[in-house]
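Exercise 3.2. Students should predict the tertiary structure of the chain below and write it as structure tokens, then compare their answer with the key that follows.

Predict this chain's 3D structure.
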Amino acid sequence: MTAATHSTLFPQVPETADAVLDGLDPEQREVALALSGPVCVLAGAGTGKTRAITHRIAYGVRAGILQPASVLAVTFTNRAAGEMRGRLRQLGAGGVQARTFHSAALRQLQFFWPKAVGGDMPRLLERKIQLVADAAARCRIRLDRNELRDVTGEIEWAKVTQTVPADYPAAVAKSVRDAPRDPAEISQIYALYEQLKRDRSVIDFEDVLLLTVGILQDRHDIAEQIRRQYQHFVVDEYQDVSPLQQRLLDLWLGDRDNLCVVGDASQTIYSFTGATPDHLLNFRNRHPNATVVKLVRDYRSTPQVVHLANGLLSQARGRAAEHRLELISQRDPGPEPAYTEYADEPAEAEGTARRIRDLVAAGVPAGEIAVLYRINAQSEVYEQALADAGVPYQLRGAERFFERQEVREAGIALRGAARAGGNDSLLDDADDLPSQVRAVLSTKGWTSEPPSGSGAVRDRWESLAALVRLAEDFARAKSGATLSDLVAELDERAAAQHAPTVQGVTLASLHAAKGLEWDAVFLVGLTEGMMPITYAKTDEQVEEERRLLYVGVTRARLHLSLSWALSRAPGGRASRRPTRFLKGLRPGSGSLGSLAAAGAGGIERGIAGGRRKPRGPVLCRVCGATLTEAGAMKLMRCEDCPSDMDEALYERLRDWRAEQARELAQPAYCVFTDKTLMAIAERVPTTDGELSSISGVGVRKLDRFGADVLAICAGGDGGTGDEEH
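Answer key:
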């Protein structure tokens, strides 16, 4: 959830230009008033940089200093560009172009292609991975799925750093970059990939930038036409600019200097894609007369979270560290960060899920909680643990909200009802806007209670529920609003990709969490080898890993939990160590000189796994192999080993679970997940001990459901469960 959606959803448009400046702090106001010449905003995490630059643009437009069509604001993600457009619209500055580098370049390329090149522009390749696979096959080089993804990433890096195939091996050696394959092989695949694109008349996303740069360099008349249109440029997240993007920006600017850049070198975490903070750090060298403003007032996080974030950077080394910003929290004190050591990864996931369930029970919305990890492969065990705990979740990186089929269908239905007005019988008993929306969306699958289970049905319901909540907020903010008004609002939000919040705990990688924030953040898997990641070998690579953890810490507004596990699987050797980045910061981890004097805050919870009975390695009961994956450990067998499940018993358990879920008014997975039911139907327990040995059957569930399950396994109907619940 971003700051934009956390604040008032439908603020009133400021009446005057001066009113746009209301509520800005002195530094933000300085940014907003610096409307000419080069401006460099060094903005720490949570300091309101998007607020500062959108108010700067809006003030310029509302005061008549900037023409909306003459401003081009660029950033790096469609979500960030959509948020910027949404904020500008709320400030009365519609008409300003806020785009990603790629979408701005693609728009120009499509417009000028007939004039610059002639004929039809090649088709844009949405995903290049299949073409890379074809190129590797032609080269007789065998790549597995992971290698294919990594080689594709190498090709993207080469292109944004403007490295041609023949120069790739030398460029890799110079950059001290770890190539996933022999650089000569990647060079060969890269060259054939480029040839296949030409043969098939397609271009990729990097080509969009390269071709636009080529046209602007070769055709001065086209470059001048673009420069006449765009007089003022704003670049967000400037620390993430690649050499190719900087080249395009230089061509857009020409010999002018009406450029405002915003960034934070301490949040440079995408160097593997070609991003570099050098352009931000060198800005004052290139523009000696630049206005430089530092934003250090942190409005997002409590002093306790900010203290840890500052402590992380105090240990940093290198050029980016020399320009670090010392944040100053503007919030009231909150709880200390919690540090928890677990015996193994399943214990860490289960402990995290329990704490999240407690937060939700205490009133923290699930949508305001995130679990962040270093790599996506870590998500499965947390998905399982949250499902077992009955906590809804969503994986970051799914398709964009307004592109979901159910959202498009809901929009069509709402638009039809708005046109029909009083002639739609669906609306006969609906006296206000929210009840009208509920009535219409009930025909698309929305119900007052969420459906049982997870998966596609639950995801669809969550999307529709988000629309219902949006309608309720809209009606509160706009007295007398009609269904037609809401449809217009949805259209504007879809155009800006300004989506409502879908409730559910967010599971995301640290990279995917950049630019987002939550009330409660759980940073998990913080062990050496994962943080920093094993392949971070150079000092520069290790420092980027430190910055990645800093980004994770600064996502938290109030609650922050950091945890690690001493072994991967239950019963494994406790050989892991917590990340070096927390040394001197967490209680009991020693000190680092002056850092100890500042005091290392936090709550050390000890080995949470100590409350669990010691367990040996989990072995497959079919082939005897050691199990390490969460799903396999739940079944007590390898996923591909044959199952001896009693199908009839499994169906009886599913029927019983559905009845329990109805009585408890909870999703079915809150009773037991499908994997747990499969494990029960395979092992057919006859005692409490046998049942409790199945992963997913904890003490609480054994007390509540154990008698029923054992009765069903013995051939009974399971009764009605625990009457107290």
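Discussion points: The first helix runs from residue 3 to 6. Confidence is low (pLDDT under 50) at residues 1-7, 593-600, 609-616, 720-725.
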